[in-house]
Specification:
The protein is of the alpha/beta class and 511 residues long. Helix content is 41%, strand content 21%. The longest helix has 20 residues. It binds NADPH dihydro-nicotinamide-adenine-dinucleotide phosphate.
């Protein structure tokens, strides 16, 4: 097997992007270390699987307690490596505890064997069942926008399924994931959860060793991972970029739409795959919506937060991300767009920005911006809003704003996206009972989705067993005879055919 070349003994420097201070230096795992970690996980996975859902639930519940007992320190670590506001940082730990409660509480039922009735009387003598056995080692590769929740939200259902997990966090934000694994070790849980620290090449080394890859990040990297997984013939699930549209219809509650879309576009400095990145507003309410949106965005407080919730908008996670946002805004302005508020990078921050007079050729509409920007487009009617919303290579999620819920549901069915929220933003991402996955270039597969969210980490195994004492021979077994083949095909034909003639009980019609 080709091994990914990783610079030996290299280190990652972790920065606080709000003030550019270096806060940690972490050694990078070589490909040999990744291989050894996967071998160790593999060695312990079988015992973990054999614990069964109830045995695993005991450890997962202890982990849930540890996370809640340490939530303030986790928020400190999160803030230090992302420059998030306190409000953005404090939600990750309780959100993870909520997921642990859900997956550990439902695993037994979701993983139970399923029985099936034979499809044909020929097999009535068989008892049929499907059981679900985990992929032994799952690799979870995550980005920097939710450094604690992103590794955890895919790790938990995989652990609950009985798999061992190796997480490769973003090189930009490894400290929160280190906390996560530290918690697992502190509760004394079996050694089935570990970390691989490093850059993209460490991620590639993980993809080279594990049995299933769950990836969250850019479409470009997701495609590379899918190619490597295809070469290895292992499955992957990809949660990629988004360019979520918000459709504000003329009968919307404009105040709710303004408040929701502002939060949906600006939370976590817009660095969320399901951020609102495009807004389409019907003409009758366009002026009112834009006026109120600008006032709301203008009122947001931006800065380096402490523990006192002084700010609404934090820093961009990296200078590169800030520059990407600046490029989108500058390109739009050069093309004739107007900035109504914001529009300027400041240190590690980018001002919350509202843009109008944008069109569908601009980078701020076609590419993922991943920043605190809201480009707004006026549309003549619902049909134009739907057409423009669907004019994108991305299709992660969307929102529709209307006082008429039936209309919202009807519009939702015409939008090409993995999720649509009526009169809300990102709600589906917190509703684990429904799937969260992208269409088109936004992904392949989905996370969550009730039972499907845990079964994705399992291989289905079909079992057939006799219901009656089995004879010493079967009609189709050797030697082949006219009588045996004739009997078997007559029964097959009788169960497969429509009409007496094809079953063979009536003579064929003449002529
Ligand atoms: P990437 O997709 O490049 O990185 C995501 C993760 O994959 C990181 O852990 C990264 O490691 C790792 N990785 C990189 N290359 C490989 C590889 N060949 N094999 C395996 N793993 C690999 O995202 P970025 O962090 O560079 O962000 C770039 C863009 O992605 C953003 O501008 C945004 O548009 C989008 N993005 C989307 C997110 C989402 O939630 N959908 C989240 C974050 C970003 P490392 O970071 O160490 O290079």
């Amino acid at each position: 097997m080709t091994e990914s070349p990783i610079e030996a003994d290299s280190e990652i420097e972790v920065f606080n992007p709000a003030d550019a201070a270096v806060i940690a230096r972490i050694p990078v795992d070589s490909a040999a270390t990744v291989r050894a970690k996967v071998a160790n996980l593999r060695a312990h996975q079988r015992d973990w699987e054999d614990l069964g859902p109830r045995g695993r639930e005991v450890w997962l519940r202890a982990f849930q307690d540890w996370i809640l007992d340490n939530e303030s320190r986790i928020a400190d670590v999160l803030q230090s490596e992302t420059g998030k506001t306190r409000a953005d940082a404090v939600v990750e730990a309780p959100a993870v505890a909520d997921l642990i409660k859900y997956w550990s509480g439902h695993a037994r039922r979701y993983l139970a064997d399923t029985r099936a009735r034979p499809h044909s009387p020929l097999f009535a003598i068989k008892a049929l069942s499907t059981n679900y056995r985990p992929y032994p080692v799952v690799g979870v590769i995550t980005p920097w926008n939710f450094p604690f929740a992103a590794p955890a939200m895919d790790t938990i259902p995989a652990l609950a399924a009985g798999a061992a997990v190796l997480v490769k966090p973003s090189e930009v934000t490894p400290l929160s994931a280190i906390e996560l694994v530290k918690g697992w070790r502190e509760i004394g849980a079996p050694p089935v959860f570990d970390l691989a620290i490093g850059r993209g090449d460490t991620g590639a080394a993980v993809t080279d060793q594990v049995d299933f890859v769950q990836f969250t990040g850019s479409t470009r990297t997701g495609r590379r991972i899918a190619v490597r997984c295809a070469e290895r013939l292992i499955p992957c699930s990809l949660e990629l970029g988004g360019k979520d549209p918000a459709l504000v219809l003329a009968d919307a509650d404009i105040d709710r739409a303004v408040n929701g879309i502002t939060w949906g576009g600006m939370v976590n400095s817009g660095q969320v795959c399901t951020s609102v990145e495009r807004v389409y507003v019907e003409t009758p309410v366009y002026d009112e919506f834009v006026g109120k949106l600008v006032a709301k965005v203008d009122s947001l407080r931006q800065g380096k937060d402490g523990k006192d919730f002084r700010f609404d908008i934090g820093a961009m996670a990296t200078p590169a991300q800030r520059d990407l946002v600046a490029r989108h805004i500058d390109d739009a302005v050069a093309g004739g767009a107007r900035v109504l508020t914001g529009g300027t990078p400041r240190g590690g921050f980018y001002e919350p920005t509202v843009l109008v007079d944008v069109d569908h050729t601009m980078a701020c509409i076609r590419e993922e911006t991943f920043g605190p920007t809201l480009p707004v487009i006026e549309v003549a009617d619902e049909a134009e809003a739907i057409r423009l919303a669907n004019d994108s290579e991305f299709a992660l999620s969307a929102s529709v704003w209307t006082r008429d819920t039936a209309r919202g549901l009807r519009v939702a069915r015409r939008i090409e996206a993995g999720a649509v929220n009526v009169n809300d933003v990102m709600a589906n991402a917190f509703c684990v009972a429904v799937p969260m996955g992208g269409w088109k270039q936004s992904g392949m597969g989905a996370r969550f989705g009730g039972r499907a969210g845990i079964l994705k980490y399992c291989r289905a195994q079909a079992i057939t067993a006799p219901r009656l004492p089995a004879p010493s021979d079967e009609v189709m077994w050797y030697p082949s005879t006219r009588l045996g083949a004739g009997l078997a095909t007559a029964v097959m034909r009788a169960t497969a055919a429509r009409g007496l003639r094809r079953i063979g009980l009536r003579a064929p019609r003449r002529g």
